[in-house]
Structure formats: C-alpha cells, structure tokens
C-alpha cells in the first residue's frame, strides 16, 4: 500500500516495492540502504505496524532522478535502435519501444 510521506512524497512498503520491480525483499532492502546512505531515499517505520518499513525518495533523490533521466532515455534509445539490427533482439526492441511486437501478434506466444 502506497502512503503519503509527511514531507509530500509517496512512501511504499518495502515488500510492495520488491513486488513492483521484481526483486527479492532482501535485495530491495540492500538497494534502498545504499540509496539512503547517498541521501537519495529514506526508510521509515509504519505507524501501528512495528514490522513494516516504507521507503520514500528524498528531495535530493528526485533532483538526481530528474538530472539522470534525459541521459538514461538517450542511452536506452540508442541501444534499442541498435538492437533492431540484431535478429535475436529486434522483436524485443520493437516491443520495448512501442509496446507491440514487430511480428504484429502480441496476444499469442511465438510459434503458435
């Protein structure tokens, strides 16, 4: 359950964050710990639930994200463009860029 952090950001329980990004809880805990050390995120206890911890991006973290996003998108775009020339990656690259398979059939598995 995503909640509002007292300073205005959205706080998310660590388990939910792990589920959303497809990593194990312990991995997310370590990653958030590293971000916290850098001042980019912070962890807080959930009121009324001594076991639960939420993570929230700090103002510094939001600023760093905004700075990095254009570079990240440019690099990803370049890599996806180059992947279109690779027969093994072309369909995946098309799907990431457009949400549709280059083969034109996103509803059924390949070869069926």
Which key terms come to mind for this protein?
112 residues, alpha+beta, 4-stranded antiparallel β-sheet, 4 helices, 20% strand, disordered C terminus
Largest beta sheet: what is the strand line-up? 1-2-4-3
Could you tell me the strand content as a percent range?
15-25%
State the distance separating the first and last CA atoms: 38 Å
The general outline is elongated
The helix fraction, in percent, is 40-55%
Give the helix tally: 4
Specify Rg, calculated over alpha carbons: 19 Å
Low-confidence stretches: 108-112
Mean pLDDT: 84
Describe the structure.
This protein has 112 residues and is α+β, with helices and mostly antiparallel strands. It has 4 helices and 4 strands, in the order ββααββαα.
Describe the secondary structure blueprint for this structure:
Blueprint: E1 2-4, E2 10-13, H1 14-21, H2 25-37, E3 41-46, E4 49-57, H3 59-83, H4 90-98
Antiparallel strand pairs: 1-2, 2-4, 3-4
Helix pairs in contact: 1-2, 3-4
């Amino acid at each position: 359950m995503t909640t509002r952090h007292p300073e205005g950001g959205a706080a998310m329980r660590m388990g939910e964050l792990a589920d959303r990004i497809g990593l194990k809880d312990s991995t997310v805990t370590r990653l958030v710990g590293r971000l916290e050390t850098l001042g980019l995120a912070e962890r807080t206890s959930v009121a009324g639930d001594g076991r639960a911890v939420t993570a929230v991006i700090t103002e510094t973290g939001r600023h760093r994200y905004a700075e990095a996003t254009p570079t990240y998108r440019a690099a990803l775009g370049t890599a996806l463009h180059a992947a279109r020339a690779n027969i093994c990656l072309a369909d995946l690259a098309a799907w990431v860029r457009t949400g549709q398979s280059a083969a034109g059939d996103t509803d059924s598995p390949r070869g069926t």
